[in-house]
Amino acid sequence: MLELVNLFKDIFIQNKPELLNERIAKVMGTEIEELISFTNGIERDYEAVVNAVCLPYSSGIAEGNVNKIKVIKRVIYGRRSFKALRSKTIQFEKIQKIN
Questions:
Q1: pTM of the model
Q2: How is the chain split into domains, by residue range?
C-alpha cells in the first residue's frame, strides 16, 4: 500500500501527469478499498488533478483564509452582532501570531 501511495506522490515530485492513468490502473488492480476510492475521486476531478501537477498556482492561501473565517463563524454562532464577529476575529489573529 505504501508503495502505491508513493507512486502517486512521485507524480507531483516528477511533475509528470502522464503517469496518472498508469498509477490509477495499478490501484484498480488491487483490492484496497481506500485507494480505489481515492483513485475514483481523482478520476472524477481528473482535469483539476492534472492542473495541480502541471501548474505552479495554488489556492492554498485563499482556502486557508476561508477556512479560518468559517471556524470563527462556527465559534460565534448564535451571537448576533458584527461587533462580536470582529472581536473574535481579532482575538483569533492575536493567538495565531503568538503561536
A1: 0.54
A2: 2-54, 60-98
Please say whether the dihedral angle defined by the alpha carbons of residues 35, 26, 31 and 40, taken in this order, is positive or negative: positive
CA distance 30 to 52: 25
Run means of pLDDT, 10 residues per run, the chain, 99 residues: 84 86 88 89 91 85 87 76 79 75
In degrees and rounded to multiples of 5, residue 59 shows phi and psi of -100, 20
How many angstroms separate the CA atoms of 46 and 40, rounded?
A: 9
The set of cell numbers assigned to 17 is 501527469
CB 20 within 8 A of CB 50: yes
The C-alpha atoms of residue 37 and residue 19 are separated, in whole angstroms, by: 18
